[in-house]
Specification:
With 202 residues, this protein is α+β, with helices and mostly antiparallel strands. The chain is built from seven helices and five strands, in the order H-H-E-H-H-H-E-E-H-E-E-H. It folds into two domains: 3-35 and 174-201; 38-171, Alpha-Beta Plaits. Strand 2 and strand 3 (118-125) form a beta hairpin. Helix 2 (14-33) runs antiparallel to helix 7 and helix 4 crosses helix 6 (128-149). The longest helix has 27 residues, at 175-201.
Length: 202
């Protein structure tokens, strides 16, 4: 089938394609307008060395300290994928929760390691009070775990979690962007349906 034949075939189905795309766009607009706006929170944490481990290789002490901080940073990030720890965060925040889907429950916190001693956490809530409470609960639970996770021979914590002031911003649903994407997706779907109908007819 040549390009000209494709264009002629699509032209005969143009009304269906346009109408289908617009209907999908309208449905997307209605859904987007009824989606509640939320709050995006970003927390920044830093692992600080407070007690150095005893080592005979003192010339490598700084390297060991840096490597230890890096491993503790990764440990702290991994805690936010644990269902048990996430439950503790909700309980510390005093926010109600339910686990309908384990994968969704354990993926609500997005973590990023910015350096060997620094990492950030992003999450969203539907109101600012809950976002702030979750941020405080997260800091409380992570700080307690880090204090106990690595200790020296005297039982003193080697690392301390330093929490920077959380940033919480109002996030509005971009209705027009979602509508445009809905229309485009509708047109593509309509074209596929047109060719599917032609295939079945042949």
């Amino acid at each position: 089938m040549e390009i000209k034949q494709h264009l002629n075939y699509l032209r005969r189905s143009l009304v269906f394609i346009v109408v289908f795309g617009l209907v999908v766009g309208v449905i997307t607009t209605v859904i987007a307008q009824n989606q509640p706006a939320g709050y995006d929170a970003v927390l920044s944490y830093e692992l600080a060395l407070v007690n150095r481990s005893t080592t005979p290789d003192y010339q490598y002490g700084s390297y060991y300290d840096l490597k230890g901080a890096e491993l503790m940073t990764q440990h702290a990030m991994s805690l936010l994928r644990s269902p048990a720890v996430i439950e503790e965060i909700y309980q510390a925040a005093g926010v109600a929760y339910s686990i309908d889907n384990v994968d969704q429950f354990t993926s609500q916190f997005k973590t990023a390691q910015d350096s060997s001693q620094h990492f950030s956490v992003k999450f969203s809530r539907y109101n600012m009070a809950e976002a702030a409470a979750m941020a405080d609960g997260m800091t409380e639970i992570l700080s307690a775990d880090i204090a106990q996770a690595q200790t020296d021979t005297n039982g003193a914590s080697q690392f301390k979690l330093i929490a920077h002031e959380p940033v919480i911003v109002y996030s509005v649903v971009n209705v027009w962007l979602l509508t445009g994407l809905g229309v485009a997706a509708g047109w593509l779907t309509a074209i596929v349906l047109v060719y599917l109908r032609r295939y079945l007819q042949n």
